[in-house]
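task queued by scheduler; priority normal; single chain, no ligands, no partner chains; default sampling; output format set to structure tokens
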Amino acid sequence: MGVFGKLKTTVLAGMAVAALAVAPVSAQDKEIKIGMVNLSLCCAYFVGMDAAVKAEADHFSNVKVLSTDAKGDVAKLTSDVEDLLNQNVNVFIISGAWIEAAPAAIEAINQAGTPIVMVDRLLKGGDFTSWVGPDNRAIGEGIGDYIVKRLDGKGKVAIIRGGPADNTIGSNRSGGVQSKFEGTGIQAVVAPGWGEWSADGGFTQMEDLLSKNDDLNAVFCENDSMCLGAQKAIADAGKAEQIFITSVDGEMGTLKEIMREGSNYAATGRNSSDQIGRAGFHRAMAILAGGTAEKETVLPSPIITKDNAVKFYDEDSKF
């Protein structure tokens, strides 16, 4: 049966992709082109999402993924979209990374009448067919609950942000964490600079925080990479036993560190780019099969600690 035949219900990392029944078409009758538009493939998170889409496509002999990398440039992303439209792609999957909007790109796709599936970042402005991603505010709240419970409602917690200031993914995460400190004896100390989502940036921001705050009990970073850098700064300062670490994403390096005996890396909120990429692929295929997709689908994002990290660890993951 071709890909436009009956798509059986598939469970994908805790998410059920709805079964669809449409008229079958032979697999030889149609080549399907998916335009995978990436603002950036700068880091493991976005590389993992792109790889997940391609891995799912490998199960279909007539599905081809045309992947682009705008290297962080919105104008280049728009140009990439135009190139893919000229190649007559059947559906777009867009990973907008840290930008808030790409109106020219979205408008060009809508003018062509091609479906749009956004993954991770829900871009503002312009219509889209469907979005699959995390509830970043809820993830932050979950980490906030963990910190409050572990500190018994009192202490000092450092916050390291990714930036820039208008990045709602980061602000929703740290805002969710800090909302749980209200009415407790926990004081949040926010790093004045941006960690820029990197280990080096997290290291630098943590060094600055430690130089001004000798009594920190915990740190929260808006992503794992920054906290892996912060962890090194904490160790270099001889404060690994004093300060525990929390973050968001659930990349394999972080899960390995959480599972390590004696580690001060305590928790991360799951925001798996592998899960998001695979879910985005199946959403795109379901739309092409004639399904009416949910406009927005929030993926499950459990809090990962030493107690459950092994359930989420996959040494073969690209993320």
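post-processing summary
- Residues 5 and 23 are 6 Å apart (CA to CA).
- The radius of gyration is 21 Å.
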